[in-house]
């Protein structure tokens, strides 16, 4: 996302089976709280829907206000660990192997209709 031709944020995603997995969403601090993150998610959701993906997925911190609670306000639902598809479970395990506490993180999904 650009403002006056200067980058203010970005979203990185990759295919994970029939889902588009959001690997990272980041905004410059000056531009946070202005709806840009929401616009990026909406744009990516529309592009994913057009390309035939069934959902957006991601992993994030459960209790950080601008993480899981923010995604929940956009319609993402927290997934129970026992229901995770194999590749999403693998993402969670990779995070834990890199030092992110398993219990502090969660997987979330937004179904694309």
From TrEMBL:
Pfam families: Acetyltransf_7 (PF13508). The keyword Zinc-finger does not apply. The keyword Glycoprotein does not apply. InterPro entries: Acyl_CoA_acyltransferase, GNAT_dom. Keywords: Acyltransferase, Transferase. Gene3D superfamilies: 3.40.630.30. One of its GO terms (molecular function) is acyltransferase activity, transferring groups other than amino-acyl groups. Residues 1-109 form the N-acetyltransferase domain. This is N-acetyltransferase domain-containing protein. It comes from bioreactor metagenome.
